[in-house]
Design brief:
Blueprint (H helix, E strand, L loop, with lengths): L2 H14 L7 H49 L22 E5 L6 E5 L8 E3 L6 E6 L4 E3 L1
Helix pairs in contact: 1-2
């Protein structure tokens, strides 16, 4: 039973109670029943409009996806991995990701670039970061 049917059922129940529409209570119940009917019709209209807009949004999303594939040569699968998008060494797995404690900038460093160094300078703020190298994990001080 949808909201319109429930409203009609409630209105029928109220009419079945044989209220005198000339009394205050009868007028009140009649007004409430009419209001519920109007609200139910408005809700149904809004639900229909929302469904149409939802379909329209899906079509736009599909069209935009096609434009992205054509213009940017992007596939949806390109964003399924957890690798960074920094055009650095991350493809070969020899990459370290650090966050500068001074400015919060995310740094991607190639292991080969700082193999013989113990410090790295943040390109954003210039702060010198100390890098501790382990066999398994690199961390910053």
């Amino acid at each position: 039973m949808n909201i319109s049917e429930k409203s009609a059922h409630l209105k029928g129940l109220m009419e079945g109670m044989d209220y005198d529409l000339t009394t205050k209570e009868g007028k009140l119940f009649a007004a409430i029943a009419d209001l519920l009917e109007d609200i139910a019709l408005s809700v149904i209209d809004l639900e229909d409009e929302a469904a149409v807009l939802g379909d329209y949004i899906e079509e736009i999303d599909e069209d935009l996806g096609e434009v992205e594939r054509v213009v940017y040569d992007v596939d949806d699968d390109d964003y399924d991995d957890d690798e960074c998008d920094c055009d650095c060494c991350c493809e070969d797995g020899d990459c370290l990701e650090l966050t500068c404690p001074a400015c919060g900038e995310l740094l991607y460093l190639d292991y080969d670039e700082f193999e013989d160094k113990d410090t790295v300078e943040c390109p954003s703020c210039g702060k010198v970061l100390s890098v501790i190298k382990d066999d398994e994990d690199e961390t910053e001080e």
